[in-house]
Description:
mainly alpha, 10 helices
Amino acid sequence: ITGAGYIGFVLAFGLSGLLVPQAEQVNIAHAILATVIAVGLGFIVTLWLKPEQQFGEEMIIRPSPKKLLFDGFHLLRQNKTLRHLLLLSMFTIAFWDYLGNLYQPYFQHIGVPDRLFGPTLAFASAAAFFAAQNVHKLEKHIGPRWSFLTATLGPGLIYLLLFFNRTPWIGVVSIILFRGFNALKVPLFADYNNRQIASHNRATVLSLMSMVSGGYTAVMGLIIGAIADLWLIGAFLFCGLWVVAAAITLRADKYLL
């Protein structure tokens, strides 16, 4: 499913490069219209989907939501490995969604042509698809320790490269590589999280972890936005130093390996 999403981004951003060759109002209006049509078609498709029913599902006695929630908090409190996974994953969040808003003024600042904005994200999505599909091959080749370090440290180092860079083609390549490194995290952490959580309570625990990470991301978004308003590339410096420090301090090998 994640891979299909990346392919969708490749098509969407590739098309946006044709619709918005220059940052003019009429081109942006066409892109917004295309987005509305695409989202509308997606909504129509969901109306035809039917929930999957498993054989004998009506005979399963499910725990109450309250008990599942309590068990989830208890597991996070008692399981040191899972708690470390949460902290490592959360504090090395690379804020790709925020970078998606900052890369355009950054590209203008370093002189990247407007026509390359969309294709850059298309190639970045292709890199993310390739990384997500091959992360476990990478893990077998270099081991879990270096896989976690690559997935968490890579985006932070690229933030620092963006801060110092003033060359257009290096900026474009950096965004593509950033997306690829960032995509390594999701399947890698999902695999190790699932090993720590029983299947009957997995959805609840993962939701709790996502809720905690979401709150952290929202707070950091305010800080990053405030810095970017004052000094655009200063936001890259802040994110880079923060992510690098977290990746080194909360190394996976402390509890996981």
